[in-house]
Design brief:
Elements: H1 2-15, H2 18-26, H3 51-68, H4 81-88, E1 92-93, H5 102-105, H6 117-137, H7 144-166, H8 177-180, H9 188-205, E2 210-211, E3 217-218, H10 226-239, H11 243-254, E4 275-279, H12 288-293, E5 300-301, E6 316-317, H13 319-324, H14 330-335, E7 336-341, E8 350-355, E9 368-372, H15 373-386, H16 390-403, H17 414-428, H18 435-442, H19 446-452, H20 454-457, H21 472-477
Parallel strand pairs: 5-7
Antiparallel strand pairs: 1-6, 2-3, 4-9, 7-8
Helix pairs in contact: 1-6, 2-3, 3-6, 3-7, 6-7, 7-9, 9-10, 10-11, 10-15, 11-15, 15-16, 15-17, 16-17
């Protein structure tokens, strides 16, 4: 993977021209995703001669998170991490037994599978590395801090997803493909150090104000700002058990009056005050998750065959997740919808419950929200519980529960508080960004949960599947790259 992708991208870099980037720039609109580079292209040094052309490169990297990886969207839709990790863990299943998602539901991924996130993530990491080098080498950029800060944030975000899916992995921070070709794995602790370093540097470059693709202040939250950096950093500190820093950084975000929890029905709208960072669909497009879970499916269908026109890939909630919602939880009413399928003489009538956080196929009505305020409350609650500040933890989790129309939790012990927080993360963050799968792993609960699901998934869970396999072709191309244990 590293060798093949690097050589291909290097060839593209050498053939890139200012004219290509300029043509993209001249056809752009206000939204950053309206001026993407071609999916598999990164501009060469000529792309960094001005702010406009540099912006086009950075925009292309953001666009790739939604549309441009070899495996499709990193963030959303049926190829997104939230969708596939949800099927892999205990959140989702496809009623029509979708062939593409079956290996994920059966927890039977193999090294011979194509189109995996390993390839897409490394391709995007390489593109961002090229961008960072180009920006660092530029001498005449008015908004250099913005472009560099955004790019460092992007690399941190990509590596965060990589390390949580695959564990130890090559740590690539340059565009030197001769060096990258022969890299072995770095421990995930080293990758986390790089993530933190990138985010700390990005904090010195970005401001609390949101900026657009021209460097102007905007109310649109479609590009990362300082608080987006802090939000991801707080998450990283939580994942690395740095409780004090997780509490301190999440507090910085929570204290910012620009962010507010809103009713569940408004949380995923384009103008939501809860949004810290979102990705903006291309002009004329709507959020990919609408199609993955909704797609205009009616509340009643006349027969099982009537499901087919809406796509075999539509994923519904697993019963255990549905049962995790408490009575009166307004998130259930607003973020989950049902479709009842009338049965036949051989197939019983069934009701399926689908994620409904994204409800609209109208362009511009909703953004793909990646970071939002409720997660910061839950990060701080968990950090405070680990620091034995149970009253503080209760205060934070109760804020999230109150928004959902629920009463506060009762404090009995640290362990009980952590159980309550895990449950709240499950019902608040379901189907978003792989949170549930990642949470089960980092808290040591994965094996027990997955073993209990063996009958439903018709498999035998094996602990080595906590990380996903590296493509066999990449193992063969790099003599220093070892396969994750358990995958032959």
């Amino acid at each position: 993977m590293i060798m093949k992708i690097s050589k291909n991208i290097t060839a593209v870099v050498k053939s890139s021209t200012f004219a290509v980037v300029l043509s993209l720039m001249l056809t752009s609109c206000k939204k950053y995703l309206d001026i993407p580079l071609p999916v598999n292209a990164v501009a060469g040094s000529t792309a960094f001669v001005s702010d406009n052309t540099t912006s086009a490169v950075v925009n292309g990297n953001f666009n790739a998170l939604l549309n441009g990886s070899q495996s499709g969207s990193i963030v959303m839709g049926v190829s997104g991490i939230g969708y596939l990790a949800g099927i892999y863990a205990d959140e989702l299943f496809t009623p029509l037994n979708d062939v593409a998602s079956k290996p994920y539901f059966s927890d039977a991924l193999s090294s011979t599978m194509t189109g995996t996130h390993w390839v897409g993530l490394y391709k995007q990491i390489y593109n961002v590395n090229l961008t960072i080098e180009g920006i660092n080498g530029a001498t005449n950029l008015t908004y250099k801090n913005q472009w560099l800060g955004e790019s460092l944030f992007s690399r941190a975000f990509l590596y965060f997803n990589l390390v949580n899916l695959y564990g130890d992995a090559p740590l690539i921070t340059t565009s030197d493909f001769n060096k990258n070709n022969l890299l072995g794995k770095s421990p995930k602790t080293e990758i986390y150090k790089q993530i933190i370093a990138d985010l700390k540097l990005a904090r010195t470059l970005l401001t609390v104000s949101y900026k657009d693709g021209s460097g102007n202040t905007t109310t649109d939250r479609g590009r990362p700002n300082l608080q987006a950096v802090n939000s991801l950093l707080a998450r990283v500190y939580l994942y690395t058990a740095d409780w004090a820093n997780a509490e301190a950084v999440s507090t910085t975000v929570i204290a910012d009056a620009n962010y507010q929890l809103v009713p569940p029905a408004q949380a995923f709208l384009a103008n939501s005050k809860e949004t810290i960072w979102a990705l903006v669909p291309s002009q004329g497009a709507h959020v990919n998750d609408y199609d993955a879970y909704n797609g205009g499916m009616p509340t009643t269908l006349a027969s099982p065959a009537a499901l087919s026109p809406f796509g075999s890939s539509k994923a519904a909630l697993m019963p255990d997740l549905l049962n995790a919602f408490e009575q009166g939880d307004t998130r259930l009413a607003n973020w989950v919808r049902s479709t009842t399928v009338t049965g036949t003489s051989t197939i019983p009538t069934a009701t399926y419950y689908y994620p409904n956080k994204y409800k609209s196929n109208v362009a511009g009505a909703e953004y793909t929200i990646v970071l939002r305020l409720s997660e910061q409350y839950l990060i701080r609650a968990e950090a405070r519980a680990q620091l034995e500040n149970l009253n503080g933890a209760k205060g934070d989790i109760d804020v999230v529960r109150a928004r959902a129309g629920l009463v506060g939790v009762t404090i009995t012990s640290k362990d009980a508080m952590l159980v309550s927080i895990a449950k709240e993360r499950r019902t608040e963050l379901f189907t978003e960004a792989g949170h549930r799968f990642f949470d089960l792993k980092r808290t040591g609960a994965l094996d027990a949960v997955m073993t209990a699901l063996q009958t439903q998934k018709n498999n035998t869970w094996q602990p080595f599947r906590a990380v996903w396999p590296i493509p066999l072709s990449d193992i063969q191309n790099d003599p220093n790259l070892a396969q994750n244990p358990g995958y032959n």
